Amino acid sequence: MTSWINFYDFKHSVIYVNARHRDVHYRTIAEYICAYVPSPAAHVLDYGCGEATSADLVAAACAQLVLVEAAPNVRASLTVRYAGDPKIVVITSEQAAALSKASFDLVVMHSVAQYLSADELDRVIKIFRTLLKSGGLFVLGDIVPPHFAAPAAALALLRFGAANGFFWAAASGLVRIFVSDYLRLKKTVGLSHYSEAAMLEKLRRAGFTAERAARNIGHNQWRMTFLCRADRG
Ligand SMILES: C[S@@+](CC[C@H](N)C(=O)[O-])C[C@H]1O[C@@H](n2cnc3c(N)ncnc32)[C@H](O)[C@@H]1O
Known about the structure:
The chain is α/β, with parallel strands linked by helices. The protein has helices at 4-8, 19-36, 55-61, 72-81, 93-97, 118-131, 149-163, 167-179, 181-188, 196-205; strands at residues 43-47, 64-68, 88-91, 104-110, 132-143, 208-212, 224-230.
């Protein structure tokens, strides 16, 4: 395995300890995204959406939801899952880059930035800046700070499991992740980490006025979400 996209390109990624974890995870993410949808007429883009098993909740809260997923098998299963929902479109990263300018009210990228190099992140942030309508919102979630990332993630998963009836599966899932390609890829390809100040500066340089949200999207509050509005001009 040579890339994070390959790592995630399974029907059910090893990162979810069982189907319940996956479904509670995606429902939680969808509920957070719904809270950022500005109106029922909004056009929303979710970049690096993963298995997105609750995307129908987001679609119900907006006019159109574009799901962008780079992993081909995950994208194929999303296409099948949402074939009957006229509000949901599933596309590739390349297709997202070619979408009409100023066509989205909300762009979300959650738990993807750590898998991109700093230059790749700059490139996608620039694309989002052009895709957003004037006054639109870019929500950048699950940014991993440089310190204590692994113990914080393990603890957050165990707590999430305890609160949602899959504690023991979470404990054994941590062992499974430990022996999976995750740690090997972490060493060879790397994971990107940002302090709050570094990310705010990156977003400012990309032409956004940004602030850290009071809560991170999802179950790991050690990580950070940023709310970004495009500067005028
Ligand atoms: C942890 S999952 C996040 C899924 C979903 N957004 C969530 O919050 O659960 C990471 C996602 O990043 C995507 N990804 C990894 N590397 C990528 C890259 N270089 N370009 C685009 N997407 C990438 C994977 O395909 C996967 O869907």
